[in-house]
Each structure stands twice: as C-alpha cells, then as structure tokens.
Amino acid sequence: MFLPVLLATLAINQVEEPSRFQVMLGATAAKSSWPSDAAANGSLKLAYAPYSFVSFYALLRLGYANTNERMLTFISGGAQFTLDLESWRPYARIAFAHQHEEPVHLVKHNPAHALLGIAHGIHHRGGGEAGLGVELPIFKQNDLEAFAAFETSFTLFVGDGPSVYAGGTAGIGINYSL
C-alpha cells in the first residue's frame, strides 16, 4: 500500500498531460501455490488515465493451467499509479479479481458458455491482485504512443483451488491522448 501512495504523491508535482486511453496485449507465465502447477495466459488490458499518475483499468486473461488440465478466464478491475519519468514509467497497480476455472473437456463442448462463466462445472473464484511494472515508450507521434511493458503480479484467491498465483507479463501497447 505504501508504494502506490508514494508514486501518487510524487506524481502530483508533475505537469499534467491530457487524459489518455490505453490498450495493451501481453503474454503471462505464472506459478500457482499448488505443487508443480503452472499457467500460461494471453492478456488484454484497457485503461483510462484521467491524469498522468493514475489510471483505471480492466484486465482480461485467457489461458491454461497444467494441474487438472484446466482453462482459466481471469477478469480484474482496478487502479494503476504511475510515475512518468519520460523515458520509462514505473507503476504499481491493485485490483479486484475474479477467475473462472474449468476442465478443458468442458470448454471444448461449450466454449461460449465457458468464456461467459455460465458453463456447467465451472469454478468461480474471487480475490485481489497487485502488480509492479514498467512501461518503456518506444515511439511517439502526435497523440499516439507505442510502448513495451514488463511486470510482475501476485493474485490471492479465496476458496478451493490454488490460493496464490505469482507471475510475469511482457506486453506491447498504445496510449492515445484524448
């Protein structure tokens, strides 16, 4: 909790830029608290930043975990606190998280229901997620900026199943100033 407050405090002294919209695609690898369980996910992050130091985002991950051969649908929404140092932007984020876990054979029979979280045999789990990362601008022209991002994240779930996922994400994205 200290790091987001520190980043927000430091960012308040920066010159404000126009608000922006962000889209990022990423690949995530994670280890769960279950022995020898690992997961691989593709991710999509959509964010709106009313100020340069804070953004509000939705994150969707779709993937696979090897123990019990299960598919994962991860949905989170939260806030990201960023320190804009021009050539790099470290950030901390915190979110509420929800995950669907279902065996692969159930997803094969009804993929739409599995994605929507209404399939028979689906396991719903709630919790929270926190992440630390950095965005590295690679190109900027007018109101459009491309960037690379790297982060580590930790997710804590309650209920049956792995209680913790720890992982890393590499991604590319764009910021569009409004």
Helices and strands in order, then pairings?
Layout: H1 2-12, E1 20-32, E2 38-51, E3 54-65, E4 70-82, E5 89-103, H2 104-109, H3 111-116, E6 123-141, E7 144-157, E8 164-177
Antiparallel strand pairs: 1-2, 1-8, 2-3, 3-4, 4-5, 5-6, 6-7, 7-8
Summarize the model shown.
With 178 residues, the chain is mainly beta. It is built from three helices and eight strands, in the order αβββββααβββ. The protein has one domain: Porin (Beta Barrel), CATH 2.40.160.
Topology, number of strands: 8
The geometry reads as elongated
Question: Which series of helices and strands comes N to C?
Answer: HEEEEEHHEEE
| Rg of Cα set | 17 Å
Low-confidence stretches: none
Q: So, CATH architecture?
A: Beta Barrel
How would you explain this protein's 3D organization?
The chain has 178 residues and is mainly beta. It has one domain: Porin, CATH 2.40.160.20. It has three helices and eight strands. The chain has helices at residues 2-12, 104-109, 111-116, and strands at residues 20-32, 38-51, 54-65, 70-82, 89-103, 123-141, 144-157, 164-177. The chain has an eight-stranded antiparallel beta barrel. A hairpin with a 6-residue loop joins strand 7 (144-157) and strand 8 (164-177). The longest helix has 11 residues, at 2-12. The mean pLDDT is 90.
What labels describe this entry?
178 residues; mainly beta; Porin; eight-stranded antiparallel β-barrel; 3 helices; 13% helix
